[in-house]
Specification:
There is one protein chain. The chain is an alpha/beta fold. 23% of the residues lie in helices and 32% in strands. The protein is built from six helices and 15 strands. The chain has helices at 12-21, 32-37, 49-58, 61-64, 77-80, 184-195; strands at residues 2-5, 26-29, 40-43, 72-75, 85-86, 91-92, 100-103, 107-108, 111-112, 117-123, 138-144, 146-148, 154-159, 163-170, 173-176. The strands form four sheets. A seven-stranded mixed beta sheet has the order 2-1-3-4-15-14-13. Strand 1 (2-5), helix 1 (12-21) and strand 2 form a beta-alpha-beta unit.
Length: 197
Amino acid sequence: MIAVVDYATGNLRSVADALRRAGAEFTLTADPALLRGADKVILPGVGEASSAMSQLRERGLDTVIPSLTQPVLGICIGMQLMCLSSEEGDAACLGIFPTDVVRLPDRTADGPLKVPHMGWDTVDMLRGPLFEGIDAQTYVYYVHSYAPRLCDAAIAATDYGMRFSAALARDNFFGTQFHPEKSGAAGARILLNFLNL
């Protein structure tokens, strides 16, 4: 059984739809016992980092999630919450991934840059089982204003005003800054790779 963490942030429906398309059995839950007993856990989310961390703390999930031993996938803000901290709301996060989340630049030497970074962009530097069968420069779908700095735990990268970690992995924890559930065939393959870990 796949447990999708329900902590009052958005995009649960799109993740649930993607899991249904993959033929996966899942439950939406914030129950620590169900999370600990699940085969896999997905931490989705859209919204603001400090508010999302408050939601996790209110449910006691700020201590549960880092203690999980099965494969865990954070998506978008779900991955950001697994980092050390976020500039968004000056949030202390779960500390699973050894990097900080920073605001994307709205200007480069070439001129202004639209933030949020919204739409299709490529990933490269791919490594690890999450990206099995995925080619470098594959397009994935982004909607974000903040991103994790590039670090040793990065298993994919994207350039948008800065080079940032498009995906992270450490032990049993994985994360994607992009939305695999909205990234077409490539995203479906990435989700399936996670489900097959």
